[in-house]
Amino acid sequence: MTQTTKKETPLTLDVFTAGLWKENPVFVMMLGLCPVLAVTNSVLNSLAMGIASIFVLVCSNALVSALRNFIPKQVRITTYIIIIATFVTLVDYIIQAVSLDLYNKLGAFIQLIVVNCLILGRAEAYASKNSFTKSVVSAFGMGLGFTLALVMLGGVRELLGAGQLLGYQIFSTNFEPWVVMILPPGGFIVLGSWLLLINYLEQRKTGKLISQDEASHCAVQGTPS
Amino acid sequence: MNPESLSYIFLSAFLINNFVLAMFLGLCPFVGVSAKRDTAFNMSLATTFVMFVSSTCAYGINQVLTSFDLEFLRLISYIALIASSVQLVEMVLKKFSPALFRALGIFLPLITTNCAILGVALFQTSREYDFFQSVTFSLGAGAGFGLAIVLMAGLREKLELSNLPNITQAAALSMMLAGILSLTFMGFAGLGGATA
Prior knowledge:
heterodimer, A: mainly alpha, two-stranded antiparallel sheet, about 0% strand, globular, B: 9 helices
């Protein structure tokens, strides 16, 4: 307790908004890329994935933060993973009960939320060091930022790949859909394009680049060894 | 070719539905550890090995869980299994091949959060593969992961020598490259006579 209270800064709006854009988990921190690319072939799938991730992120970070003084240091990563896996199992069964159709579309990627480095990364880097309220607020911000990024990708891919948005026809029937956009290569290319655009805007505004810190993501340091 | 046959399962995981480029599994190491070809190759070796061990054990665990009607524990047991097999690999390597351990050391903990490993275990369960099919599937997936990451590392080594605009630095260009690689791999669709 002594360590954690010393560093505690007051809860500000910044804690919430940081995850939304400035430290956006996808565009800036490059965390949790697998679901980002795999399920964003339509807006609906992106939204569902985003909401599922928010739920797991908020619940697991809340629990990790509440238990942070009781979890022994040596087994903390394992504990976090088990906490996360519990909530993911919950989400998995909830989605199955609410909409089987959606469940079949998202497939194994709901269960793969367990290994989404965003969630484990936040548990390790933030929730294990900060108070309950702050962790929950920050996790919610991060989750919203993640969803925002998913929808940005899903929107472009669905619009170009099928000429639709949320199932509504946007372009006239003369529009030839770019099928490649809803196929795997489209995911990489659209994410790459968003990153280029964001880099360009950032460079024009501040004269320097957002440092997308490669290799540091997902590297949860200090697993018990 | 029969989609249930061992050779098709291998080819499918290796090329047609390449784990990284078509199924988007294991992207973090794919972007993070693909700066040098040597390290990329070592990483893929370690990953394949962990995949093999965890998929073999996952098959057994699934049998036990199914026979006791405990399917809801599947995810938790798989993830615990992967974490412990990473530990096992770490200990075995430390004991028998310290040189390899030093080369792979930093990557081993990373493998725990590699979704490709959990992906192999989950897919082999949902597709109801038998034991030999599971083993083949895990080897194919490992080989596919290795192929993708080594190709990527080769491309990125070449890029270091070229003159690029500022904004394409870091991840943006990697994503573009991966997109082009992924397009290339789509050419393998239909290999073996069956559609994906």
